[in-house]
Amino acid sequence: MTTHRRLVETLKRKGAPPQWQDAVAAVDRALFIPGVIEEGDFADDPEGWLRAVYSDAPVVTQVNDGKHTPEGAFRLFTSSSSMPSIMLEMLDLLDVREGQRVLEIGTGTGYNAAWLCHRLGDADVTTVELDEAVLSVAAENLRRAGFKPTAVLGDGRDGHRRGAPYDRVICTCTVREVPRAWPEQCPDGRIVTPWGSSFFSGSYATLDVVNGTARGGLSGSPAFMWDRGQRGGAGRIADLYHEAEGRRSRTDIAPQNVIQDDPAFFTGLSVTDAWYRWCEADDGSGEATLWLLADDRTSWATVEYVPGARAYEVEQYGPRALWDDVREAFLRWHTLGKPERSRFGLSVDGAGQRVWLDKPSRLIGR
Ligand SMILES: C[S@@+](CC[C@H](N)C(=O)[O-])C[C@H]1O[C@@H](n2cnc3c(N)ncnc32)[C@H](O)[C@@H]1O
Q1: Chain segment 42-56, per-residue pLDDT in tens
Q2: Rounded mean pLDDT of the chain?
Q3: What distance in angstroms lies between residue 184's CA and the mean position of ligand 1's atoms?
């Protein structure tokens, strides 16, 4: 069964917060999904399209910022209708109440803005989108669904001063730095955003704002697109690898240990501009390669995991010694007593963003 009712039931079963269930039931996702999506052109497959629309999964609606992408080229996902249960998870963190004013960053298809409008009313919802074409389609989707929030073309990092103050800010793309404009425009309320750096981007920051100072913790495992102005590296390893010999060494740190959630999160606080891929051999040997790749494409490193080995081959290429940087962060995390991500917090005020461990005075990074 591929119906709106089915999606509503799925989300209920997955624990949709009661205060959002009416909005979920009232807004049909089909009004927000185009006929051509990343999964294909569904002109001749209406059932396939309905399956995509009504499954609890993201639907990618734009790649490479809408630019022409030649056959075989890497496709960076740049706009989507997010996974509905993840949208609800974020809205739950936002803890929004009737009568409050909400600023959404990243209109995308407009589906999330529609839920907000259904619950709060058009007048209390402002949504900002950086991509003009995306915004104009979203505005039309919203109109068809019967909603008319304030939809603004602009960089969401600037918020939307004219509509301030807001009680809540929800951002649906990942940021490295929570912009100061958000607590300025939401001086007593709450901000929820996917937050992180290239190495580890999978945290929600949930920040309570009091007198313009935002402070809060990190949780969850969101996987959102980057804020367009703060993107990290991406691509296929084959396109990023320089066919040249790197500097060789060995390490006694098993490479998979550095990419577990807590150490990877901590590493992401200092190694902000490099990312990793874990590639398992497909020959049943259990061997794997940890790839480290600099955002600027100048440097890479590999660590070769072999089951049962005591030391692992390392190769580092380019001006950065990426494994050395990751190793240093991993060892520092051990020195600090292997703190879990839940012990870290974030503060944002006029002086910018700071990351701390346990209490705001114990600074770890920016
Ligand atoms: C995951 S999609 C948003 C999903 C959307 N909320 C929905 O319900 O369909 C992320 C969107 O953020 C937009 N975006 C990225 N950086 C932005 C920025 N700095 N300001 C405003 N929008 C931005 C992208 O163009 C994209 O449309």
Answers
A1: 878 899 999 999 999
A2: 95
A3: 21
Q: In the predicted model, is pLDDT for residue 1 greater than 60?
A: no
Q: Name the residue range of residue 321's domain.
A: 239-335
Q: Is the CB of 81 under 6 A from ligand 1?
A: yes
pLDDT tens track for 261-281: 999 999 999 999 999 999 999
Q: Is 82 helix (H, G, I), strand (E, B) or coil?
A: coil
**C-alpha–C-alpha distance, residues 25 and 22, integer Å:** 5
Residue 177 counted as domain residue: yes
Given the residues 79, 80, 81, 82, the one annotated as active site: 82
Q: Which two tokens stand for residue 90?
A: 């974020």
Say how many C-beta atoms besides its own lie within 10 A of residue 283's C-beta.
7
- Residue 89 tokens, joined: 């998870």
Q: ω before 165 within 30° of 0 (cis)?
A: yes
What whole-number distance in Å separates Cα of residue 217 and Cα of residue 204?
8
Overall number of domains in the chain: 2
Q: Which of 33, 131, 136, 175 should be mutated for ligand 1, with most atoms under 8 A from CB?
A: 131
Statement to judge: residues 263 and 163 lie in one domain: no
Tokens read off for 156: 């969401």
246 and 161 in a single domain? The answer is no
- Cα→Cα distances 349→29, 178, 343, Å: 37, 10, 20
- The answer to whether residue 292 sits within a structural domain is yes
Query: Residue 342 catalytic?
Result: no
Q: Given a cut of 80, is residue 150 above it in pLDDT?
A: yes
